């Protein structure tokens, strides 16, 4: 246990020393929200479905963006790099198993993603008066679930990539469709009904709807939670099946 804690602390320090990762996970989503809010029409009332403001819809979107950056952009090259350099293979001969390093990476990136969500909520509240989630328990539960989804998706990218550079390329290609389903380009709630139904079948599309419902004081629809859970289990199973230590 003490060895695993030591690995966790070491990985946390290493991530904190990566300014690019820290910026894209913690700062970029909040900065994007701040810039989006500068558009006057986005702050005007009754410009989005349900009579709310567009900026209100973009808070969950930028929360999800932080999860995407942590899970798909930062985690895969780190794991693939450890395997490529033989670090995981060498660790298998020590009392600290490679699984401890993988678990530490999941915890560190998951914590960074959730911290990014908190920063976004604070920025939205302070700068543009966006109300905090009316159902914080549902909001937090949804965040934890979709964070797991993002992390296992990143683990799958690392599992299928031979090198760190290759994982970065794959993650970059995946970023654009994933960002679309999260509502970065157009909030899911503002999409045409037919398109929205398709997007809601993806983990981040379902998460966007679930966060929106929790923000309004309700509980996420069972179908949205089920979709995220199924994606998490499937992606996690495939990544575990194909991941290699060397």
From TrEMBL:
Domain ABC transmembrane type-2: 20-246
Pfam entry (one): ABC2_membrane
GO BP term, pick one: response to antibiotic
Membrane topology: Multi-pass membrane protein
The keyword Ubl conjugation is annotated on this UniProt entry: no
UniProt-recorded Gene Ontology molecular function terms: ABC-type transporter activity
InterPro entries: ABC-2_transporter, ABC2_TM, ABC2_TM_bact-type, ABC_2_transport
GO cellular component: ATP-binding cassette (ABC) transporter complex
Localization, UniProt: Cell membrane; Membrane
Keywords noted in UniProt: Antibiotic resistance, Cell membrane, Membrane, Transmembrane, Transmembrane helix, Transport
Transmembrane segments: 21-42, 57-79, 100-124, 136-158, 170-188, 225-243
Primary localization class, coarse: membrane
Family stated for the protein in its record: Belongs to the ABC-2 integral membrane protein family.
Name of the protein: Transport permease protein
Lineage of the organism: Bacteria, Bacillati, Actinomycetota, Actinomycetes, Streptosporangiales
